[in-house]
Each structure stands twice: as C-alpha cells, then as structure tokens.
TrEMBL record:
Ranges for domain YCII-related: 1-88, 107-192
Family: Belongs to the YciI family.
Lineage: Bacteria, Bacillati, Actinomycetota, Actinomycetes, Streptosporangiales
Pfam families in the cross-refs: YCII (PF03795)
Transmembrane residue ranges: none
Protein name as it appears in the record: YCII-related domain-containing protein
Length: 199
C-alpha cells in the first residue's frame, strides 16, 4: 500500500532539524527499497525547510504511523502537524526515474485538499488526461489522496517541475477537479529531491 506523508515544521525548529539530519537520514535508510519519493518543502527563497514529504510503500496503516511517528524529527518536536493519506502511484515509478529535468525550472509539491462531498469519480479520467496531455514531461509523481481504507477520495498530491510558481498556479486553476469545485484548498510548496548527497 502506498502512503503519502507530509510533516509540517514547527516554527523555530530549523536549528534542531539541522542537528538531526544524520539521524533522519539513518532512519530513512531503513525504507530505501520502499521509497517512491521524498524531500523537503522550502520557503519561497529556498533557504529553509518548511516540512518533509515522503511517499512510501508500506504494508498497512500501522506501519505508516510507525514510519511517521518514530522518525527522529517528529520525536524531537520538529514537526507541528503530520498528514498521512493512502495514495495511488498513477505513473507507477519513483522520483529517481524522472528524466525530464530542465535547467532553471523549479520543483513543487502541490497538495490539493479535496471536498469529499463534491468528489466526482467521473472526473478522474479527465483529470488524468489533462495532466498527462499538457504536463506529461513535467510530472515527477502524482496520484489521488485517499482515506485510510483506500476507498474515499480526499484530494490529490502532485510532484512537478515547472518554470515558476505562476505556471503551477495556472496548472491547478485549469484542473477538472478545480473547475468542479472538488478542492477546498490548494497548497503549492517549493520542493526538492531529498536524501543523502550522492557526492
């Protein structure tokens, strides 16, 4: 089962996060084979982190909670909020298989929170056709956010590389789910690939 985990940093914990970098990486090393995507969200200037995002394949919800709440940053108080959702890997690949990197482009985590009362399964095909048609070579990973049992649609998570934030905003403004009013709010975070440096 694939899980999307996003942890928002608590204000004033930047230095603590830096101190825990190796502990965080060592913990994540245990999940290297299960990892689909990972990385920090950033302030607009890219200088500091605002959170940590992981998409990981785990056996069940208990394993997902262990992944989120046994992580060193969480246990030390770096995070103020933790979001855990079931997720479906529409592209069927990891972020390391993305081959479309372009110089000067920026990477974003787009977290679109769904309004379940306005969910419309008939839009799923149009949503995928829209993203795959206009943004196919820009998508790093994307898929629906789901309830714990995997049956209820609760939104969308997209990792994408685009020229700038305004392009990301335009992409979401024209999403069929947005036009239907299916999203109650949309977050667009600067984001970068995470993990140990290859050097």
């Amino acid at each position: 089962m694939e899980y999307f985990v996003y942890c928002r940093d608590r204000s004033g914990t930047w230095e603590l996060r830096l101190e825990l970098t190796e502990d965080h990486w060592s913990f994540m090393d245990r999940y290297a084979e299960e990892m689909i995507a990972r990385g920090p969200t950033l302030t607009p200037d890219g200088e500091r982190t605002t959170g940590s995002m992981h998409i990981v394949d785990l056996p069940d919800s208990a394993a997902a909670r262990e992944f989120a709440f046994e992580e060193p940053n969480y246990k030390a108080g770096v995070y103020g909020e933790v979001l855990i959702h079931r997720w479906r890997n529409v592209l069927g690949r990891t972020m390391w298989e993305f081959e479309g990197e372009r110089a000067g482009y920026q990477r974003f985590l787009i977290l679109a929170h769904g309004e379940p009362s306005k969910a419309d399964d008939s839009l799923d095909g149009a949503h995928r056709e829209y993203l795959d048609g206009d943004y196919a070579d820009r998508l790093i990973a994307y898929g629906p956010l789901l309830s714990e049992d995997g049956h209820e649609w609760t939104g969308t998570a997209i990792l994408v590389e685009l020229p700038d934030r305004s392009t990301a905003e335009a992409m979401m403004a024209n999403d069929p789910h947005t036009k239907n009013g299916s999203y109650k709010d949309i977050e667009i975070h600067p984001w970068q690939f995470g993990g140990r440096s290859s050097s």
